[in-house]
């Protein structure tokens, strides 16, 4: 079983963030988004046992869980591509201390986002006034693969021109755990102490001290 990687704090150069469940609570957003898609296909709302799945998976993964492969999947994916998501973005809820934490980290480290969100990633960052903190936003569209594929992290590191020992990734799910374990990148697990990670944080304000600030 892979072991969690530790960062080289003396040479740490960048902090990479997931979006959903880390910078903001998007559970309500995701369920409403996929409920809307299911209704458009003539299906009932997202069943209770799949709400966690659609919350953490990429669009492709969520749709496969909901409708399987085949014509329904293709129809749902096409509907997603043409859907105006602006009305759903208002359901995103910023976690306490995000701005203060990003300001503190940004004075010392480069900041980036690596998320399975696709077209809505930048829209969400703009809506919550977070865009200016990040020099790089990586999505499955830009990377060509989605988390937890290790190539997703490889692409992110290539864009940052940094070795894996000089970054940490802040994530909150088993998908993020698998990504970091496979890619050999140190992870700060946010609000989930069951995840195998270098460190754990229950609140944003705990992250800067973990990385040697304050």
UniProtKB/TrEMBL annotation:
<protein>
    <recommendedName>
        <fullName>phosphoglycolate phosphatase</fullName>
        <ecNumber>3.1.3.18</ecNumber>
    </recommendedName>
</protein>
<comment type="similarity">
    <text>Belongs to the HAD-like hydrolase superfamily. CbbY/CbbZ/Gph/YieH family.</text>
</comment>
<dbReference type="Pfam" id="PF13419">
    <property type="entry name" value="HAD_2"/>
</dbReference>
<dbReference type="InterPro" id="IPR006439">
    <property type="entry name" value="HAD-SF_hydro_IA"/>
</dbReference>
<dbReference type="GO" id="GO:0008967">
    <property type="term" value="F:phosphoglycolate phosphatase activity"/>
</dbReference>
<dbReference type="InterPro" id="IPR036412">
    <property type="entry name" value="HAD-like_sf"/>
</dbReference>
<keyword id="KW-0378">Hydrolase</keyword>
<dbReference type="GO" id="GO:0005829">
    <property type="term" value="C:cytosol"/>
</dbReference>
<dbReference type="InterPro" id="IPR050155">
    <property type="entry name" value="HAD-like_hydrolase_sf"/>
</dbReference>
<dbReference type="InterPro" id="IPR023214">
    <property type="entry name" value="HAD_sf"/>
</dbReference>
<comment type="pathway">
    <text>Organic acid metabolism; glycolate biosynthesis; glycolate from 2-phosphoglycolate: step 1/1.</text>
</comment>
<dbReference type="InterPro" id="IPR023198">
    <property type="entry name" value="PGP-like_dom2"/>
</dbReference>
<dbReference type="InterPro" id="IPR041492">
    <property type="entry name" value="HAD_2"/>
</dbReference>
<dbReference type="GO" id="GO:0006281">
    <property type="term" value="P:DNA repair"/>
</dbReference>
């Amino acid at each position: 079983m892979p072991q969690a990687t530790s960062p080289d704090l003396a040479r740490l150069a960048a902090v990479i963030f997931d979006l959903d469940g880390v910078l903001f609570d998007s559970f309500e957003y995701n369920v409403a988004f996929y409920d809307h898609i299911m209704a458009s296909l003539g299906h009932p709302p997202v069943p209770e046992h799949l709400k966690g799945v659609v919350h953490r998976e990429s669009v492709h993964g969520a749709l496969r869980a909901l409708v399987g492969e085949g014509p329904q999947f293709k129809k749902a994916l096409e509907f997603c591509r043409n859907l105006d998501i602006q009305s759903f973005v208002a359901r995103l809820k910023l976690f306490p201390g995000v701005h203060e934490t990003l300001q503190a980290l940004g004075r010392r480290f480069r900041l980036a986002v690596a998320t399975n969100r696709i077209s809505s990633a930048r829209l969400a960052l703009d809506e919550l006034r977070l865009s200016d903190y990040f020099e790089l936003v990586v999505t499955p569209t830009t990377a060509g693969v989605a988390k937890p594929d290790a190539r997703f992290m490889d692409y992110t590191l290539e864009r940052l021109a940094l070795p894996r020992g000089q970054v940490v990734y802040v994530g909150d799910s088993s998908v993020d755990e698998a990504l970091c374990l496979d890619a050999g990148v140190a992870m700060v697990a946010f609000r989930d102490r069951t995840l195998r990670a270098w460190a754990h944080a229950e609140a944003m304000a705990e992250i800067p001290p973990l990385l040697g600030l304050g």
